[in-house]
Design brief:
It contains 12 helices and 16 strands. It is an alpha/beta fold. It has a domain of about 230 residues: Vaccinia Virus protein VP39 (Rossmann fold). Bound molecules: S-adenosyl-L-homocysteine.
Amino acid sequence: MSLLREIAELIAMEGPISVERYMELALSHPRYGYYHSRDPFGEHGDFVTAPEISQIFGELIGLWAVDCWARMGEPEKFALIELGPGRGTLMADALRAGRLVPRFLEAASVHLVETSEALRAKQRETLETAQWSGHSLAWHESFAQIPEGPFILVANEFFDALPIRQYLRTAQGWRERLVGLGPDGRLDFGLSGEPMPDIRLAAPQGAVLEISSAGLALSREIATRLVGFGGAALLIDYGHTRQGFGDTLQAVRRHEFVPALEAPGEADLTAHVDFTALGRVARAAGAALHGPVTQGRFLRELGIEARARKLKQKASEAQAAEIELATARLIGNGPAEMGALFKAMAFSVPSLSTLAGF
Ligand code: SAH
């Protein structure tokens, strides 16, 4: 509850804060921020991500990276980058699959972008005990700190953790949604007094517009480096492909939705990723765009069904049933499955006109 108190005191002193500032504090406060204070993943945590559902997810992404490297002309050195690696599971599975092509692994230096000390420690443990060795592993606070050169980048459920601002279309134009204090002293949503003259989008009253400056800036930065040095970047996330006009801010705690302002630092806070906007800035920076396609289609194209069949052949009956369930969860179209809700999109240097999976 300490972060809740800290935010309430901040607002009492300085006035209402943006949704962006609220998200930043809730997720990344150095002491109480959500990712800094815990390992949120798994059945006993707050939510489960694709690499934690099945090893096949990371393996296929590893093979996707090998394919990219081949299309890049097999550079002797490149950076294999992951943004927000969680427990390090995806990277460990990807590197294991990469052993099929030893020269790919020899060329790769692994760079992980992670701000949480707790998760860095977990990633180190996962990757150091993984059955591979001899690769350099480096951690960075941000993408900008990674040495320049050709690279292949993966970001799974990373952009949805970047803060957004929200704007509401009222009778007097667009107003920013703010977090202030209600009459009972609790955190409450409100609106900026002044309309935002810079937003000229036509939308019905009640529409909500979400903008992630951090996401757009990062997308531009990645694309600019790809154009300069070569390579590709794969983004997979919960998100939409049409301009949203909806409030997608959501808080999840122990696999249940909770009100977004109830327990900052104790629930995961995300917003859907606006793939159209991220793609637009990447293209404007000169990158080629691949997708977005649904996660289900992307994984099928990469051969998830054949890989699942192969794993099942070696498995017990119970394990085979588990593999089937996990695969369905990754590619199924149901509301509790990830196949249609999640999207995959890639950027690349324009000379890579096609990439596996798209
Ligand atoms: N990719 C992982 C974890 C997704 S959760 C998986 O699929 O399981 C988001 C991850 O991004 C966490 O590791 C979190 O600590 C990290 N993260 C969140 N915001 C960040 C930021 N601004 N900079 C770097 N890492 C961040």
